[in-house]
Amino acid sequence: MSFRSRIASHLSSATRLKARFVADYALPHYLPRIVRHKWKTAIGGKTFPDELFVFVTNRCNARCKHCFYIDELGDTSGEWSLADWERLAATLPELEHLTLTGGEALLSPDINDIAFALCKAAKPKVLTVISNGLRPQAVEDFALRWLELGDKDFGGPRPVLDVLFSLDGFEATHNDTRGVPGAWTNVNDSIKRLARLRDANLGRIDVGVVTVITDSNKHELKELAAYVSQQLQVRQGFEFVRGTNTSVWGLPREMRADFNPSTHSLPPRDELSGIVDLLRELNRQAGSRANFEFFTTNVLTARMLQGDFHGVPPCVSAGRTTGVLYPNGDIACCEFMKPFGNLRDDFAYDFAAAWHSSAADKCRQAARRCRCTHGCYLSRNIALSPSGLMTIVKEL
Questions:
Q1: DSSP 8-state code for residue 117
Q2: pLDDT of residue 3
Q3: Considering only CA atoms, which of 368, 286, 248, 353 is closest in space to residue 320?
Q4: Which residues neighbour 245 within 8 Å (Cβ) at sequence distance 6 or greater?
Q5: Which residues are 131's β-sheet partners?
Q6: Long-range contacts of range 267-271, CB-CB < 8 Å, 24 or more positions apart?
Q7: Which of 14, 259, 279, 372 has a Cα-to-Cα distance from 5 of 20 to 30 A?
């Protein structure tokens, strides 16, 4: 047995996980990102986001009870055409990550061409598509068409396709939450189809599920995680249900978007710590597949929901590293903030003009004082701050 192995054998599983995280992730991955971010901030000048969330359509074939965007669903008036997206694409900066969502992104009649146009221009390393999986054939067709494209088509490395499916619980819970009979059967079919494509195209496509924690599915989390890991064999992330009224602090009310779920609510406050303990157990069991940033968002989310903001890193994502585009061309610093303009009407399709406008600057300044439980932004804040990194290590 090697010296390293002998030392490891005397350490607890939690300590081994912390040590492995520092050696395999913190030093080679997180610290360079923090240094780059600090450097870009220090030298000043105009910067661009490295991640965009694009709501490509308000069309949706579900009416999920925990959806914070539910009031906008079905209103397709003013949605951009493919020509609009192509005109905007020419002005986009290079990105690390592009996420397409909705509504149900795959219901957009031009989703394939929109995805290609945006990726060819912005050259992200990863294209994430979020889907409810209600149409398995459409999901598979999109992935197959993507796999037909090569580096030559993009003028550089083709982005990895990452498809994330929403999975709320077992059959009765999932169908009730989605408001669609058969939703459980269809999303399972979609996940299995994409998992087969993943296995046949390693490194070119990935697949996972996201489970939103509510008072309705809290009792199923452990068993659901075992099912996802053992039966579906895909990665899983968790988020607490969110809405502007329950998940944002420090942002002026006049700047807040009115995004709130219709019925599903958070688990009782006195149960949050127990849920986090369960998620910690699941995260440790996941080993190398553990999602360190998103587990830490669960820890900090539970704290904030209990009124404790200790250790919550400042917002460095909204309007800085991350931006949001809506189907009608509206642009915002984050999903919890109202749009600061329209890319067509106010900025003539010029992304740089919008991003560096005085209206955007005002939103960025407001975001500095904001704290929220939105996993996409909170995880980025954790990953780009030394205090966030320390929180990851502490909570593993």
A1: H
A2: 46
A3: 368
A4: 260
A5: 165
A6: 267/213, 267/214, 267/215, 267/218, 267/240, 268/215, 269/305, 269/306, 271/218
A7: 279
CATH at residue 189: 3.20.20.70
Task: Find residue 331's DSSP bridge partners.
Answer: 325, 341
Which residues lie below 8 Å from residue 365, measured CB to CB, with a gap of 6+?
Answer: none
- Expressed as residue numbers, the domain containing 157 is 49-395
Give the per-residue pLDDT at 10.
47
Question: Does any domain span residue 227?
Answer: yes
With b for 16 or more beta-carbon neighbours within 10 A and e for fewer, the 351-369 pattern comes to beebbebeebeebbebbee
Return the number of other C-beta atoms located less than 10 Å from residue 66's C-beta: 26
- What phi, psi does 209 have (nearest 5°)? -130, 155
Specify the number of domains making up the chain.
1
Q: Of all helices (H) and strands (E), which one includes residue 334?
A: none
Report the SS3 class of residue 306: coil
Number of H helices, E strands in the chain: 17, 11
- The residue with tokens 């996980």 is 17
- Half-sphere exposure of residue 257, counting CA atoms within 13 Å on the CB side? 26
| Residue 11: per-residue pLDDT | 56
Q: Report if residue 1 sits inside a domain.
A: no
Any domain includes 43: no
Provide the 8-state DSSP code for 232.
I
Distance CA 68, CA 60 (A): 13
Q: DSSP alpha helices (H): ranges in 44-110?
A: 82-89
**pLDDT given for residue 323 in this prediction:** 98
In a domain, 65, yes or no: yes
Query: Distances in Å between the alpha carbon of 332 and those of 52, 53, 222, 300, 324?
Result: 10, 10, 36, 24, 5
pLDDT of residue 24: 84
Spatial distance between the Cα atoms of 135 and 107, rounded to a whole number of angstroms: 9
Q: What does the alpha-carbon distance between residue 379 and residue 97 come to, in Å, rounded to a whole number?
A: 14
Instruction: Report the relative pairing of strands 126-131 and 330-332 from DSSP bridges.
Output: unpaired
Residue type, 121: A
Task: Of 73, 86, 81, give the one whose Cα is nearest residue 132.
Answer: 73
Stretches where the chain sits below pLDDT 50 are 3-4, 7-8, 10
Q: What confidence tens digit (pLDDT) does each residue in 48-85 have?
A: 999 999 999 999 999 999 888 888 888 899 999 999 99
Instruction: Report helix, strand and coil shares of the chain as percent, to nearest 5.
Output: 50, 15, 35
